[in-house]
Design brief:
The protein is of the alpha/beta class. The chain has nine helices and seven strands, in the order αααβαβαββαββαβαα.
């Protein structure tokens, strides 16, 4: 079996041994492994993260193929976290990857033991559950990063990273701030990946998507379906991974 030193030669050359030692020790949990979370997960594994927990309840759907890392015609119908785990272990067989087919909600939150993670990453799209996760994660000792909406966008140059309360031009962030203010706010500053580009759907909702709404685990708490390009969610996910890498690099200095 190829050893980790061989896999990460180029990373070590750029980042140094101290970074790789720290990255291998950090525990990361990602909520949502769709268009944003799946790419974030792969970039973290390729960046030296060795302890990663994936949380998502869904199975791969045909409509995921245009943007989700593990979605292909061969994986339709399979559990997302399991397919992604298999792929990630092909990149680094030494990694410890936990796949949880589960929904994050106020009722399930305590089961994830957020206090045990060094990094918590939010890439879910249920407004109520996302607001709850943001508030809870902001109370944890680990570092928390959140993705805002990646749909209805095509221009990567509009992607930004900012503190949650300073995000502008993102309808999802605005809705979350309103909800979180009513719930009592959050205890610390958190960074978000977002885009201030807002476009409208030009096409009509397909029959396949209507079927998906009724037969999959899609529920009324999720954001409504919007058009999405292949690369935009991926760049969101890669940017989240970058935030983790930079935080570890700062600690390695």
């Amino acid at each position: 079996m190829i050893n980790q030193k061989e896999i990460f030669q180029r990373t070590r050359l750029l980042m140094g041994d101290r970074y790789l030692d720290l990255a291998a020790q950090k525990r990361v949990i990602i909520f949502g492994v769709g268009g944003v979370g799946s790419w974030c997960a792969e970039m973290l594994i390729r960046s030296g993260i060795s302890h990663l927990t994936l949380v998502d309840s869904d199975r791969v759907a045909v409509t995921n193929i245009n943007r989700q890392l593990m979605a292909t015609v061969k994986t339709v119908g399979q559990v997302k976290v399991d397919v992604l785990k298999e792929r990630l272990l092909e990149i680094n067989p030494h990694a410890e990857i936990v796949s949880l087919q589960a929904v994050y909600s106020p009722e399930t939150a305590s089961s994830f033991k957020l206090e045990s993670y060094d990094f918590i990453i939010d890439a879910i799209d249920s407004l109520s559950n996302k607001a709850h996760l943001i508030r809870l994660a902001a109370q944890m000792p680990g570092v928390f990063f959140s993705s805002m909406g990646a749909a209805l966008k095509i221009d990567p140059s509009c992607i930004r990273v900012d503190e949650f309360w300073k995000v502008k031009g993102c309808p999802l962030a605005a809705a979350l701030r309103t909800r979180i203010k009513k719930l009592g706010g959050i205890e610390k500053k958190i960074l978000c990946v977002y885009s201030n580009e807002v476009r409208e759907n030009k096409g009509e909702k397909s029959f396949l998507e209507e079927q998906q709404d009724s037969v999959s685990q899609w529920d009324a708490k999720k954001a409504r379906i919007n058009g999405t390009m292949s690369y935009l969610p991926a760049i969101f996910g890669m940017t989240l991974a970058c935030l983790v890498v930079k935080e570890i690099d700062n600690c390695s200095q």
